[in-house]
Design goal:
This protein is mostly helical and about 80 residues long. It contains 4 helices and no strands. It is elongated and about 55 Å long. The relative contact order is 0.06.
């Protein structure tokens, strides 16, 4: 796995020589990715479930269990689960 510094250097190399207009588009795209895609995966389960009928009254302990189940499901669906 590459280091954060290496990824940053790759990004800098990719944008070198771009026009101001092109850089503006890249910045907007990165902002969109950060705000709408990356952060979406780490949403607050309690905020989401308050719109989910009977689940809106779950205790913190129940929310934590539910959150762990969702994380494991996501790993399994990507083929990265560890069966013990």
């Amino acid at each position: 796995m590459m280091s954060k510094n290496r990824y940053e250097n790759i990004l800098l190399n990719e944008i070198q020589g771009l026009s101001e207009r092109e850089l503006s588009k890249i910045v907007k795209t990165i902002h969109f990715l950060k705000e709408e895609i990356i952060k979406e995966k780490h949403g607050n389960v309690a905020d989401i479930l308050k719109f989910s009928g009977i689940w809106k009254n779950m205790s913190r302990k129940e929310l934590n269990i539910f959150s762990e189940i969702l994380k494991e499901r996501e790993k399994f669906s990507k083929g990265r689960t560890i069966i013990e």
